[in-house]
Amino acid sequence: MKKTTVSKLVHKYLPYVVVIAAFAVCQSMISAGTMPRTTKTLLIPVCTYIVMAVSLNLTVGISGELSLGHAGFMSIGAFTGIVIAAYTQQVFNCSELLQLLFAILAGGIMAGIMGFLIGIPVLRLQGDYLAIVTLAFGEIIRNVLNCIYISLDGNALRFSFNRPDLPGQLLFRGPTGATGVNRIATFTAGFLLVLFTLFVVLNLIHSRSGRAIMAIRDNKIAAESCGIDVTKYRMMAFVTSAALAGMGGALFGLNYSTLVPANFSFNASILILVYVVLGGIGNITGSIVAATVLYVLPEKLRAFADYRMLVYAVVLIAVMLLTNNQTIKNFLVSFREKGHEKSGKKGGEAV
Amino acid sequence: MSENVKRKSNTKMVPFPSRAIVPERDLGKRPVLECSHLGIDFGGLRAVDDFNLTIGKTEIAGLIGPNGAGKTTVFNLLTKVYQPTSGTIMVNGKDTAGMNTVQANRLGLARTFQNIRLFNQMTVEDNVRIGLHNQISYGMFSGVLRLPPYWIGEKKQHEKAMDLLSIFHMEDLANEKAGSLPYGAQRRLEIVRALATNPSLLLLDEPAAGMNPKETEELMENIIKIRDQFQIAIMLIEHDMNLVMGICEGICVLNFGKVIAKGTADEIQQNPEVIEAYLGRQREDEE
Lengths: 351, 287
Prior knowledge:
By secondary structure, chain A is mainly α. Chain A has helices spanning about 1-30, 35-40, 45-60, 70-90, 95-120, 125-145, 185-205, 210-220, 220-225, 230-255, 265-280, 285-300, 310-325, 325-350, and strands at about 150-155, 155-160, 170-175.
C-alpha cells in the first residue's frame, strides 16, 4: 500500500518538480551572471516549445488523434498576442506586465475559438484522414494570415483582406508579418505559463473529463455504449490543446521584434510532433525534457555550421532506436522496480 | 447452484399484455423492452426479420441460435449501433427511434461485447468509473480547478466503483491495467462496467465464452445475484447450453434472422424446429 502511494505521488508531481527545479537552476545562474548570453536567448523559446509539446501531447497522446496543424494555432496566438499587446499599450496605456497578460489570454481565446471552428469538420474524421485534414488547416491558417493586414488607427483596430493601404500604424502586414514588436516576454512569464499548462493538462487528465477522453482513445464503441458523448470530449481535448498552443504562441511572438507567418509552416508542426513522439506519446514529463533538449541541441550545434542538422538527425535516430530497444527497456524497468522497493522499505521502517 | 436451477423451473411464464410472455412476478410492471416487427437489411441481406420480443422487468432472457443467426445484430439494433430498417423498440415504454448509442444508454440499455472491449490502457477502477460517467458527474472546470464538486464526485465515484467491483470480488485488482487481466476477469469487468451505467436492461454478449466450467458456474450465480440485487432485466447471448437452460426464464431462438421458437427452457428443448436448426433435418429415407 505504502509502495503504491509513494510511487503514485512521485508520478503525479514529477512534471512540476522537473520544471520548478530547472527554473531554479536557470534563475540562480542568471543572477550569478554565469549564464552565457546565447543560452539566455533560448530560455523563452524553450518555455514556448514546452507549452506546445505538452498541449500537443493532449491531442496526440491523451486523445489519440494525430494533429499536424499545431503550429497554425501557435501562429494565431502569436499574431493575436502582438496586436493585443500594441492595442492595450496604445489605448489603455497598460504596463508591460498587463500587456503580456492580456496578449497571452487573447491569444489563447482566439486560438481556442479557431480550434472549435476547425474541430467541427475535423473531428468527424479519424486516424490518417484526421491527420491530413489538420495538416491542411495548418496551411490554410498560414495562407490566410499572409493576406491579412491590421492597423492601429488612433484608438481603433482596422482589418483588411489583401489591401495594405490601411490608415494608421500597420501592426501586421500579411506576408511580411509583424515588425518592430515590443519585446515584452520574460522568462518568469514563460515559466508561469509552463506551470499553468501543466496544471490544466494534468488536472484535466486526472478528472472525469480526462478519463472520458482516454476512454474514447482506447475504445470508441465501448465509450459510446457507456453513455459518453464522443464528439463533446474529443472537442474538449482539441480546443484545450489549441487554446494552450495559442497562449504559447503569444509568448513566443512577443519575444521577437520581427515575426512572419512563414515561421509557422508545416515544418514547425512536425518539429513539435517530434518532441511529443520522442518524449513518449502520452508522457508529459517526457515532452518537457524532449522539447528542452531538442530545441537547445541544434542551437548549441551552430558552431558546427554545416554539420549541425546532420548531427541533429543522428541524435533523433539514436533516440528512437534506443527507446525502442528491448534490452534497454528491461534494464530501465528493473532499475525502476528497485527504486520502488527501496522507497517501499523506507516507508515500512518509518511505520 | 442447484437451487438456482430449481428457481428457474418455478418460474411461470404468463401472457402479457396479449401475445407476449413474461414471468408471472413481472405481470403488474411495465416490460423493460418491447420489440415489434424489428428488421434490418444489409444490402440485399435481411439480417434480422420480424423480430418480436417482450422482456419483463426482472426477467433473465436468453437469445440463442446457430452461428450467423443474427443474435449480435439484435443487440446492435437494441443499443442503436445500427438503426433498424423496420419495426420499433420500446425501452421502459419509450420509443428509441432516431436515438444514438449514447441516448439508448441513458434510457437504460447497457451491454458487454462478444470480443471484449475494455479500455486497456486504463486501470480496472477507471474502467468502472467510465461506466459511472453519467451517474456521478461534475463539470470540466471543477475538474481542472479542483473545486469542491471534483473532490465530492471523485470520492463518490471511488466508493461506488469499489462497491460494484465487490460483486465479483475484484477490489484487489482495482489498480491493475485492464488489458493485463486474465480473460475471465476481463469479461467480469465488462459486466461491472455495464452495471455502473445504472441500466434497466443488461445485455450480455456471450458472457461465459472462454470461461472454464467452474467460472461459468460462478457467473451463473452472479447473474442471478445481480438481477436480485439491482432488480433489473438481463438478456444474454450464449452458446453454453448449461448456462442458458440453467438460468434463463424466457428463451428466444433465432435462425437466419428469424425467430423460430420462444418459451421456457423445457419448451425450447423439445421444439422440433430448434432441434432441426441445431442438429439438421433427419433424412426422410432413414425413417
